[in-house]
Amino acid sequence: MNQRDLVERAGRGDHDAFAVLVRGSIARLEAVARLILRDPELARDAVQEAFIRAWRDLPGLRDPDKIDAWLHRLTVNACLDVARRRRRRAIEVELTPLSPQSVSDSTGLVLDRDQLERGFRRLSADLRAILVLHYYVGMTVPMVAKTLDLPLGTAQSRLARALAVMRDTLGADSEPGQSAMPKEGLA
């Protein structure tokens, strides 16, 4: 059974079809939520909240083929809601990629993660969301804008602001004359 059929069946109230959809996306959405919220427990709560919203609102989804973008939007919005409720508490989490990468120098990996962690701590949840969707999930900036229901220019400026904060943080840790992060286009 293809994903479109599962979405349509779940939209008509089929719990089993919805369970299959959830199983197929939970790890990916939880990884996104962990990067945004910086706490595994809060991330699980946000993903659960997103799935509750998805179950409730699924009958109104106009295009079943866009279920993945819709689930990302629900997850990011749930993360932002959780972050607003938890603003007072400092949150820490270990960064783990979706697929482990081979690293020949574990010391360099620890240093890189530490630098990224410092940069992420300086970002608000909405700026982390833009970075995570663009660089971690691999969405284009127009897709990020659509997923977050933002004008394209707003998404571009938020990405630029997030990158500037990350560059400042990483640049403060690098040697003079070295660029810690590459300057890239926003496409």
Q: Architecture of the largest domain, according to CATH?
A: Orthogonal Bundle
Rg over CA atoms, rounded to whole Å, is: 18 Å
Number of domains: 2
**CATH T-level fold name of the largest domain:** Rna Polymerase Sigma Factor, Chain: A
Q: What's the end-to-end separation, in Å? A: 35 Å
CATH homologous superfamily classification of the largest domain: RNA polymerase sigma factor, region 2, helix turn helix motif
Number of helices: 8
How many distinct beta strands? 0
The residue fraction in helices comes out at 55-70%
> Could you name the CATH class of the largest domain?
Mainly Alpha
Tell me the β content.
Answer: under 5%
Compressed to H and E, one letter per element, the order equals HHHHHHHH
Biggest sheet statistics = none
| Shape descriptor | elongated
How do the helices and strands line up, and which of them pair or pack?
Blueprint: H1 3-11, H2 15-37, H3 40-57, H4 67-85, H5 106-121, H6 125-136, H7 141-147, H8 152-173
Helix pairs in contact: 1-2, 2-3, 2-4, 2-6, 3-4, 4-6, 5-8, 6-8, 7-8
What do you see in this structure?
The protein is mainly α and about 190 residues long. It folds into two domains: about 1-95, RNA polymerase sigma factor, region 2, helix turn helix motif (Rna Polymerase Sigma Factor, Chain: A); about 105-180, Winged helix-like DNA-binding domain superfamily/Winged helix DNA-binding domain (Arc Repressor Mutant, subunit A). The protein is built from eight helices and no strands. Helix 5 (about 105-120) packs across helix 8. It starts with a helix and ends in a 14-residue tail after the last helix. The relative contact order is 0.11.
